[in-house]
Every structure is written in C-alpha cells, then in structure tokens.
Amino acid sequence: MRILVTGAAGFIGFHLCRRLLADGHRVFGLDGLTRYYDLTLKDARLAELRPHNTFSFDEVMLEDMAGMTAAFERAAPEVVVHLAAQAGVRYSLENPRAYVDSNLVGTFNVLELAKAAKVGHLLLASTSSIYGASEKRPFEETDRADYPLTLYAASKKAGELMSHSFSHLWDIPTTAFRFFTVYGPWGRPDMSPWIFTEKIEAGKPIEIYGDNIWRDFTYVADLVEAIVRLIPAVPEKGAPVGAMDSLSPIAPWRVVNIGRGEPVKLTDLIAAIEASLGKKAERIQMAMQPGDVPLTFAGAELLEALTGYRPDTDLRDGVRAFCEWYRGYAQPL
Asked: Which of 2, 37, 80, 229 is 20 to 30 A removed from 18 (C-alpha atoms)?
C-alpha cells in the first residue's frame, strides 16, 4: 500500500515507518524537524530509514498548507497515519501557541488533504491525557472525556472532534488512537525513561514528581504492532464490534486505546532502570506538577476485539532494551 506517515522522524513515527517498510509498503514520511528536542536524534532516525528504496521524505511543517499539499500530491496515499504533533504535557504550560499551530491548524490541514486524496483509512494519534480529571479506572473509549487538564490534552481532543466531523460529512473512515506512556529504543529525551536513565548513568540525582504515580507503560514495538493491525480494521458505520465499541452512530469513526491495561508504579520503572544499568539512583522527591494525574490505566478490550492483540511486553524487558540502546547511542556522542 501507499502509506503517508506524518511525524516520520519522531519516536513513534520512526518505528512505524521502519515496520511498514519491512512489511513491503511504500512509505511517504513527513516531518517538520522542529527543535523541541535535539535534531541529532531525529537525523539519526531518518538515517535508518533513507536507505530503503520504498521510503520518501519531505521536510514540511503541518501548518504549511502549500508544502503539505505538494507532499500529499506526490504521495497519493491510500492510508494516512497522522502522528506529527507538538507533544509534551509540561511544555504546553510554557509554549501554548505551538500546540495551536501544530495540533489544531496542522491537524485541520491533514484532514483537508485526506479528504481531497479520498484515503481509504485515516488514522491519527491522540493521547491518554484526554481523560484528564476523570476518576473512573480503567479509562475506556466510551467514557466522557470533557475535562482536559492541559492545553496539550485539549488540543488532542479537538483533533478527535474535528476528525469526527470530517468523517461524518465526507465519509472518511477514521480511527483515532489514544497512546498510554510509550517508551523504548529511540525514545524522546523529554520523557521519564530517558531522563532517569541519563541521570542514573551519569551519577546525578533524579527528581520524582509526586509520591504515588502510576502509568500504563506501553513498549513502542507493541504500540506499532497495534497500529499496523488497526490499519485494515477500517471503521464501518453501523457495524460495532460490541458494547465497548466507540464507533460513532453517524460516521465511520472510532477511538481506540493502545495500552497494556496494567499500570506500573513510577518507582518500579526506576527500579527496572537501576537493574538494567547496574547502578542505584539518588532520588529527590518533588511535588506533583500542574497537569499531571496520579494514575493512567487503559481499558484494552476494544483494541483486542478489533485486532486480536493487546500490548504485552513486560516493563523490565522493555526497559532493558531501552537501556541497551541508550548506552549504544548516547555514550559515543
């Protein structure tokens, strides 16, 4: 298939492109190569993808409609996987306009271009942060998610809502997936697994925000497996798979959680990193930061019903793989 992936130089986009290429697809990668974190890492990811003769890449910002239009016309995609976004919960407190430009204007541009291309399936990344102040656990796709705690979460919820309207008006089959704390090799330097690993390896103290924090850590290869299986699971209006299905009653549109459904205490992540590195961490306890929640926990029944799959990599195995990659990548720098 001809598959266009936005955010191809990002953590998840890179892994997805590599998997799609291995599966024999023609992949068109787009990325704005923003400086939210070190471009060296993004360039290194692209260097892994460029040798494939079925991979093409365009550097373009989502909000650049002319550049995006040209890229879509070259790709003529059958499927679009929209992963590019301004990420990060805490950064949305510092630079909120970046989220408006990328996650609102940029997503609107992708929707317009997917409509024009008449794609067979549009898939777009959302986030578990959408569940916000909800006190119900686990988070399920049919739950109301109307109380976001950050602009990041609000911008991703807006992307879901915009995509639903496009799906309804122009019959675009659309799947929005909500990620739960993704980690693994080639990960992002602003996320806790990298931050903790970097500091423990260097013998520096780590800061722990909140004293009882739980996350549904999802290994990146499991996440990619779920996305790959969702590509052929095209939503059909009026054909739900069960009572847990979030399928819209008026559009070929649904939202799907991608998580293990087994939350892990943050201190257990740290212990796994310590075991993998063979070093103990000096810990500094801090207050929870604005916008954070104490527990995220995915209901994964819909994903399993649609694909026959749910993420299952044990945290210790995933952390070991990340630490081995980190030592091989970061130490020579």
From this structure: 37
d(CA 128, CA 64): 27
One DSSP character per residue, 32-66 reads ---SSS-HHHHHHHHHHHTT-TTEEEEE--TT-HH
**Count of H-run helices and E-run strands, the chain:** 12, 13
Q: Is 152 a known active-site residue?
A: yes
pLDDT in tens, 35-72: 878 899 999 999 999 999 999 999 999 999 999 999 99
Cα end-to-end span (Å), the chain? 37
- For the entire predicted model, the pTM comes to 0.95
- For 298-320, how does the pLDDT look when each residue is reduced to its tens digit (9 = 90+)? 989 999 999 999 999 999 999 99
Angstrom distances, CA of residue 88 to CA of 4, 117, 156, 190: 23, 30, 11, 8
Q: Which residues pair with 18 in a beta bridge?
A: none
Q: Which two tokens stand for residue 22?
A: 């291995």
> What average pLDDT does range 122-147 have in this prediction?
89
The answer to whether residues 283 and 272 touch, using CB atoms and an 8 Å cutoff, is: no
Which residue in the list 131, 152, 219, 326 is annotated as catalytic?
152
| Beta pairing class for 253-258 and 79-82 | unpaired
